[in-house]
TrEMBL record:
Keywords: Hydrolase, Periplasm, Protease, Repeat, Serine protease, Signal, Stress response. One of its GO terms (biological process) is proteolysis. It comes from Sphingobium cloacae. The keyword tRNA processing does not apply. Residues 373-406 are annotated as: Disordered. This is Probable periplasmic serine endoprotease DegP-like. Residues 393-406 have a biased composition (Polar residues).
């Protein structure tokens, strides 16, 4: 037993001795990351530190103080005077509360002109007003800012601060040279964390998010709440975008941010800086993108041009001979595409300019010349457009109808008579057929056609009976098209064109 223990002890001691001997060689080895430096991606520096150090002082924090009218949710109840509501004899009257907003901006001149987003310096709610705007530099100096001008349509605003010294500033670059995959840097104040720098690449160009003049640069550089109004820099340190929006289900960065390109922002900033309002060209037309259904109904390629739904009397398009049902494919030599939409092209034309326009009418290309007018205020434009809450093309559930199910397109209709016209409340000279039922399982039902709507034309030809509608469907089908273009009138609205897909055979 004693011998066995002795052997065991020798083995343990020997193992310890071996371990100690092995550890003495660690110092001769090197760590995996010792002296390593990753190669910089093509077009990007090994470090952004030098560039950021120069640019960061020109990026500012912008905060506003606002007054918000708050309704008493307990008005008329025993709790009406709780939580400060009704103090001072106010009873159930609205009370004023203080609010703040935070964002970013950047200085564009040594005398203190600053660019930011309009929504950064605007009241955040209905009934709110902005009392003051404060700009804070990276050295923590604070200045009271004056709003020089704003353009809500593109979400751009220009501020001015008065400093006793020349301020660091940055200049706009040329975003037209930007390419998908280029490296960019964003500097701003996300979540009130001042002076935050993020980097990434350009993910897409000419990205639209639903606005009339959207031409955003999309990036995966982290952009969050508070980055709004801050600059997006290229690798030469030039501002090629104004960080404006994010797409996020959670409210935080998911790698999809949008910046207003400098090619769009710079002219607007120059105009606002001069104290002038932004004026845009206008033709007086209501338009619809040439999507798949509309293109199929016309036998044209999709996303090449925009469809004219209506023409405002007396405006440039009307005087040039453009009519509802035309497709505008080119203005002033610029092709109309989803990346270069018609509204943006026209808006950038000089007011009073004569511009050549190429249209397609009944499958034939025609050339016209229009004089560009000045775009009126948005409230006037809304009176020309159909109302959203009753607009054709909106989803509308409707029960199936056996009669309609047997008809072409799933639509059952009858000729108009003076009595039907009076009942529908439409102009007395209207010609067409009145829909009596729509099969909800068809595209016509899905696009909101309903009893009481009037079909004026099909495939750009007047219809006066169900038989003529069926014949138009057969003609379109024989031409290999998957949809037919209907012109539809609804009470209280101007006629619109609606592409309807043919029933499955």
């Amino acid at each position: 037993m004693r011998y066995a223990y002795a052997i065991t002890g020798a083995l343990l001691l020997g193992g310890t001795a071996i371990a100690v001997t092995s550890s003495s060689n660690v110092g001769a080895q090197t760590a995996q990351n010792e002296g390593m430096q990753a190669a910089a991606p093509a077009g990007a520096p090994a470090s952004l530190a030098d560039m950021v150090e120069k640019l960061q002082p020109a990026v500012v924090n912008i905060s506003t103080k606002q007054r918000v009218q708050v309704q008493n949710p307990f008005a008329g109840t025993p709790f009406g005077d709780l939580f400060g509501f009704g103090q001072g004899g106010g009873g159930g009257q609205p009370q004023t509360r203080q609010a703040q907003s935070l964002g970013s901006g950047f200085i564009i001149s040594p005398d203190g002109y600053i660019v930011t987003n309009n929504h950064v310096v605007s009241a955040g709610a209905e009934g709110a007003s902005v009392d003051s705007i404060t700009v804070t530099l990276t050295n923590r100096e604070e200045y009271s800012a004056k709003l020089v001008g704003r353009d809500p349509a593109t979400d751009i605003a220009v501020l001015k601060i008065d400093a006793k010294k020349a301020l660091p500033f940055v200049k706009f670059g040329d975003s037209t040279r930007a390419r998908v995959g280029d490296w960019v840097v964003a500097i701003g104040n996300p979540f009130a964390l001042s002076g935050t720098v993020t980097a990434g690449i350009i993910s897409a160009l000419h990205r639209g998010t639903g606005g009339t003049y959207d031409k955003f640069i999309q990036t995966d550089a982290s952009i969050n709440q508070g980055n709004s109004g801050g600059p997006m820099f290229d690798m030469n340190g030039n501002v090629i975008g104004i960080n404006s929006q994010i797409l996020s289900p959670s409210g935080g960065n998911v790698g999809i941010g949008f910046a207003i390109p400098s090619e769009q922002a710079a002219p607007i900033v120059d105009t606002l800086r001069k104290g002038q309002s932004v004026k845009r060209g206008y033709l007086g037309i209501q338009i619809t993108p040439l999507g798949e259904d509309m293109a199929d109904s016309l036998g044209l390629a999709k996303n090449r041009g925009e469809f004219v739904q209506g023409v405002e009397p007396g405006k440039g398009a009307d005087k040039a001979g453009i009519k509802a049902g035309d497709v505008i494919v080119s203005v002033a030599g610029q092709e109309v595409t989803p990346d270069q939409n018609l509204s943006s092209i026209v808006a950038n034309q000089a007011i009073g300019a004569r511009v050549p326009i190429v249209i397609i009418r009944n499958g034939q290309r025609q050339n016209v010349t229009a004089i560009v007018g000045e775009r009126p205020p948005e409230d006037q434009l809304n009176s020309f457009a159909p109302q959203d809450d009753d607009e054709l093309g909106q989803q509308n559930s409707q029960p199936d109808n056996g009669q309609a199910a047997q008809k072409s397109l799933g639509i059952s209709a009858i000729p108009l008579t003076p009595g039907i016209i009076r009942q529908l409340g439409i102009p007395a000279d209207t010609r067409g057929i009145a829909i009596t039922a729509v099969d909800a399982s068809t595209d016509a039902g899905a696009k909101g056609l309903r009893r009481g709507d009037v079909i004026i034309s099909a495939n750009n030809r007047p219809v006066a009976s169900q038989a003529e509608l069926d014949a138009a469907v057969k003609q379109v089908s024989s031409q290999g098209r998957a949809a037919i273009l209907l012109q539809v009138l609804r009470r209280g609205q101007p006629p619109i064109f609606l592409p309807v897909r043919l029933r499955d055979k």
